Amino acid sequence: MPRLWPALLLGAAAFAAAPARAEIKLEGVRWEAGEGLPATRKFREVEALPLRNGVLKARVRAKVAVRNASPVSVEGILLRYCVSALLAPGRPRAVGSTEGSWTVPFLVEEKRIPRIGAQRTIETSVDPTVSVRLYVARMARAGYRVEELRLAIMVEPRPEVAKGSPGEQGDIQTIESIVKVKP
């Protein structure tokens, strides 16, 4: 038994010295819209983004739930996201029609999260309002209307997040959310 103690102590020290792997997970996205001045603006969850006379008047944001499933806090998380649109010709579409095409992303941005505590979930917001307003207006002038918006988000891969051995790559966390645009 006395010879077993050094081996146990050495194994425990090696286990304690091993870095804990960060496990960042994207858990969901919900769209919100709010109108009014910033001091009194109340956001509410929406199924479709409202247009008034073909213009997006509301402030729009997507709330993204990000979870740190590891036993240690994680710092410096980078979310990369893009927004693309389903465009259709400007004339009203027939019921059940599937005309329209997804465009290439018109907005590509990133959002930094400074820190997420161990075993915590936070909600961060992504605000594409200005770019969406400009894009909707530009497409209306070109004779098209925006039917839906698609938000794609990914967690920027980091070396310490890789699974297993040092050369092995971990899974890339991505999530997509589509919201309708109602005229």
Verbal overview:
The protein has 183 residues and is mainly beta. The chain has a single domain, classed as Sandwich (Immunoglobulin-like). 15% of the residues lie in helices and 46% in strands. It contains two helices and ten strands, in the order H-E-E-E-E-E-E-E-E-H-E-E. The strands form two sheets. Strands 3, 5, 6, 7, 9 and 10 form a six-stranded mixed β-sheet that branches. It has a four-stranded antiparallel β-sheet with strand order 2-1-4-8, with no helix packed on it. Strand 1 and strand 2 form a beta hairpin. The longest helix has 14 residues. It is elongated. About 4% of the residues have low confidence.
Précis, in short:
With 183 residues, the chain is mainly beta.
Topology:
Layout: H1 4-17, E1 24-35, E2 42-45, E3 48-50, E4 59-68, E5 74-89, E6 101-102, E7 107-116, E8 120-126, H2 129-141, E9 144-155, E10 174-182
Parallel strand pairs: 3-10
Antiparallel strand pairs: 1-2, 1-4, 4-8, 5-6, 5-7, 5-9, 9-10
